[in-house]
């Protein structure tokens, strides 16, 4: 039902439009019909449909109302369609709603990066059109609807053209951290000419060829840490280096420090001492901003599928990490939310696609509100979200060893924190021991399933003994200190109910 409060002119126009096509065009309306012609125009504009219509706040089955009375369920954007009643009422046309997060959310060459809402950074890049903005001052392009209240994806233009990035920039032959220069001064570290990007203070963005990322199926790890050179952190780093564990068991590694850590080759960041904060961690954002800048300048990360930042006091196992990463596409933007609720700093995992997105946008998008994030993990996760990088959540990825048996864990990729070398050794051995027991028990279980409970089952013992021998070789070869600090004497006995006792002497 339509209202009747229209003027003489509007009513005359409505009558003329209806008469021109005949009464057959004024028909009951069903949801999703978008192409029925009424006179010289379609009933609804492109991307709008007669669905979820309201009239004065109530369901309107014919989607025909005086313009001021028509609205859409959930607050979706409404447009006036064709005249649908002689009194001048028009079709209520509602913007088609899309499933939240269905990619691609943005048209053309725009991305959900650097978004603002109401003048503040907007990590989810979804806002009512009048509140949306871009952090570089550009005008956003509306994307798909992302919430039923009518909010749409905020789509901003990347600072650099497709295929280029703000990585490896030079200004007058020197490294240019902010990648902003006059075109005559700009160049790229690989010798290629610089492309021109968006305007910035003092010139235009210097855009260099984007790195070629490893194919999706690659599994290489590039691992790095920040360690003070005169502290217990240094003792942990030197121990890990000697035993080829932690970051030193990755395909490539990098250590940042404030001085020499011989024999570990470390990049000097200058002063990296941080203040202890009220949340029982460090105010270390500025330190890690310098580390990230150095990491992107060097560019080694681009040769590996995954980049892993680890704290020196974190016990972790690359083989367990590979299990979690199996099947994920490293050349697409992705980071691991290691507690389920957020990403915490003991271990941070980034795909090559995420690193590429960070490197091209960090200076432009992640510095404005760094004072809001005193801890580096909060800052980098906010940066990832601002750059439009999605996360993969794991609940048991990071385990805190805050009680005596916490390290007896066969599933956790990382266990934190072990502040001294003896604590680190104990946690490492406990976690490895838990995994070996599990594998041996599984072998015994298979034996029971095939042969029943028959006392000492000879057929399975060779397999178990082979596994134990492998474990011994691994420990001897990669962490000999474990043999001195916690000698491994594995005694295997197949007892009643097919149970195994594997004793760590």
How many runs of DSSP E, i.e. beta strands?
Answer: 36
Q: Which residue ranges are poorly predicted, with pLDDT under 50 across at least 5 consecutive positions? A: 1-41, 447-457, 475-505
- Largest sheet features: 5 strands, mixed
Strand content range: 15-25%
Distance between the termini: 85 Å
Number of helical segments with 4 or more residues:
9
Helical residues, percent? 25-40%
The main sheet orders its strands as 25-24-23-28-31
Shape: globular
Average of per-residue pLDDT values = 79
Round the Cα radius of gyration to an integer and report it.
31 Å
Structural class estimated from helices and strands: alpha+beta
In short:
With 505 residues, this protein is an alpha+beta fold.
Question: What report would you give on this structure?
Answer:
The chain has 505 residues and is of the alpha+beta class. The chain has nine helices and 36 strands. The strands form twelve sheets. It has a five-stranded mixed beta sheet. Strand 35 and strand 36 form a beta hairpin. Helix 7 (421-451) packs antiparallel against helix 8 (461-478). The longest helix has 31 residues, at 421-451. Mean pLDDT is 79; it is low at 1-41, 447-457 and 475-505.
């Amino acid at each position: 039902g339509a209202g009747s409060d229209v003027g003489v002119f509007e009513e005359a126009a409505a009558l003329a439009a209806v008469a021109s096509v005949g009464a057959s065009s004024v028909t009951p309306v069903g949801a999703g019909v978008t192409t029925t012609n009424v006179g010289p125009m379609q009933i609804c504009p492109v991307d709008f449909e007669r669905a979820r219509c309201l009239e004065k706040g109530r369901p309107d089955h014919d989607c025909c109302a005086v313009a001021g009375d028509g609205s859409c369920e959930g607050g979706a954007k409404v447009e006036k369609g064709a005249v649908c009643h002689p009194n001048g009422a028009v079709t209520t046309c509602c913007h088609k709603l899309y499933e939240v997060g269905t990619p691609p959310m943005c048209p053309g060459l725009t991305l959900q990066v650097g978004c603002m809402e109401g003048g503040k950074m907007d990590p989810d890049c979804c806002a009512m059109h009048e509140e949306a903005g871009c952090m570089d001052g550009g005008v956003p392009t509306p994307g798909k609807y992302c919430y039923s209240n009518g909010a749409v994806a905020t789509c901003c233009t990347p600072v650099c053209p497709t295929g280029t990035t703000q990585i490896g920039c030079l200004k007058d032959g020197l490294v240019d951290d902010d990648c902003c220069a006059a075109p005559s001064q700009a160049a790229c570290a690989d010798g290629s000419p610089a492309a021109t990007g968006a305007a910035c203070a003092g010139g235009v963005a210097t855009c260099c060829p984007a790195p070629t990322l490893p194919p999706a199926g690659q599994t290489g790890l590039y691992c790095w840490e920040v360690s003070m050179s005169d502290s217990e952190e240094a003792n942990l780093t030197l121990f890990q280096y000697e035993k080829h564990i932690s970051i030193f068991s990755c395909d490539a590694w990098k250590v940042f420090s404030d001085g020499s850590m011989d024999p570990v080759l470390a990049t000097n960041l200058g002063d990296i001492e941080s203040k202890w904060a009220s949340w029982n961690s460090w105010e270390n954002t500025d330190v890690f901003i310098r580390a990230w800048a150095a990491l992107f300048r060097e560019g080694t990360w681009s040769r590996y599928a995954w980049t892993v930042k680890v704290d020196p006091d974190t016990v972790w196992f690359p083989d367990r990490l590979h299990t979690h990463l199996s099947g994920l596409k490293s050349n697409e933007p992705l980071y691991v939310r290691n507690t389920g609720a957020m990403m915490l700093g003991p271990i941070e995992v980034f795909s090559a696609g995420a690193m590429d997105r960070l490197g091209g946008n960090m200076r432009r998008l992640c510095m404005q509100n760094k004072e809001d994030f005193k801890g580096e993990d909060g800052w980098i996760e906010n940066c990832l979200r601002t750059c439009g990088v999605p996360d993969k959540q794991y609940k048991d990825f990071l385990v805190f060893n805050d009680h005596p048996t916490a390290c007896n864990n066969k599933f956790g990729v990382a266990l934190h924190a072990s502040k001294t070398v003896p604590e680190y050794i104990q946690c490492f051995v406990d976690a490895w021991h838990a995994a070996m027991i599990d594998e041996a028990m599984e072998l015994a279980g298979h034996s029971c399933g095939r042969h029943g409970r028959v006392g000492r089952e000879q057929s399975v013992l060779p397999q178990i003994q082979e596994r134990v021998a492998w474990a011994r070789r691994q420990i001897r070869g990669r962490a000999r200190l474990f043999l001195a600090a916690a000698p491994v004497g594995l005694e295997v006995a197949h007892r009643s109910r097919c149970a195994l006792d594997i004793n760590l002497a």
